[in-house]
Amino acid sequence: MTAFFSVIVLSYLIGSIPTSLIAARLMRGIDLRQYGSGNAGATNAIRILGWKPGIAVMAVDIAKGVIPTLWLAPFAYGTILFPDAAVQLAAGCAAIIGHIWTVFAGFRGGKGVGTGAGVLLVLYPGTLAVCLVIFGFVALVTRVVALGSIFAALAFPLVLSVFRYAFGMPVEECLYWFSFVAAVLILFTHRSNIKNLITRFNGNKF
Fold first, then answer.
1. Residues 83-93: tens digit of each pLDDT
2. Is 62 exposed, middle or buried (0-12, 13-18, 19+ CB in 10 A)?
C-alpha cells in the first residue's frame, strides 16, 4: 500500500511541473497566465512564446503523462488488490490532476490535454491516434485549437467504444469507463472556451 501511495504522490508531483510557466519565466521573465488566454498550457505557450518553445512545452507535458503511467506504476504492481491496469490508470490520473491543479503554481495549471495525451499514448495508442486525427482536422478547418481539443475529447470514449464492441479490442473495464470521465474532465477544463465559442457562434464571428 505504501508503494501505491508513493507512486500516486510522485505522479501528481511530476504532473504538477509547470512546464509552460517555467519556459515563459526563463524566456521572457513573465507569468504566462497573464497573457493570451491566461492558461498555463502548451497552446498559450505557442501563442505567446512561439511555436518552437510551445512544441517543446507540449512534448514535456506529454512526457509528464507517459512517465507515471509507463514507468512509475509498475513499482506498485501487486502491492494492492487492484489489477495492474487500475494502478496505471491511478498514476495517470494523478499526473493529469497535477497538470491541471499544480501545487507549484497556486493550483492554476493547464487544461490537461498534453499530459492526458501522454497517459492515453500508453493506455490507448490506437484510440489516441484516431483522436489526434480528429483534433488536427477540426483545428485546421476552424483554426481554433480549443475546438479541436473539445471534439477530440468527445470522440475519445466513442472511438474506444467502437474499437471495443465493433472490433473486439480487449479493454479493462476500469480503463473503458475512464474514457468517459476523461472526456468530461477535458470539457470541464475547457468550459471558458466553450462559453466563448458559443458567444462567437451566436455573433456569427466564425
1. 888 899 999 99
2. buried
Question: Are both 92 and 140 inside the same structural domain?
Answer: no
User: Is the residue at 119 inside a domain?
Assistant: no
Burial 178-194 (b: 16+ CB within 10 A, else e): bbeebbebbeebbeebe
84 and 7 together in one domain? yes
29 close to 79: Cβ distance less than 8 angstroms: no
Domain of 14, in residue numbers: 1-111
- Predicted pLDDT at 206: 46
Question: What is the CB neighbour count within 10 angstroms for residue 79?
Answer: 15
118 occurs within a structural domain? no
pLDDT at position 203: 65
Rg (CA), the chain: 17
* 25 and 54, same domain (yes or no): yes
Which portions of the chain are predicted below pLDDT 50? 205-206
Q: Cβ contacts of residue 134 below 8 Å, gap of 6+?
A: 148, 151, 152, 155
Same domain, yes or no: 17 and 102: yes
Distance set, CA 69 to CA 81, 93, 122 (Å): 18, 9, 7
Q: Where are the alpha helices (DSSP H) in the chain?
A: 2-16, 19-28, 42-49, 51-66, 84-100, 113-123, 125-142, 145-161, 173-189, 191-202
Residue 98 near residue 13, CB atoms below 8 Å? yes
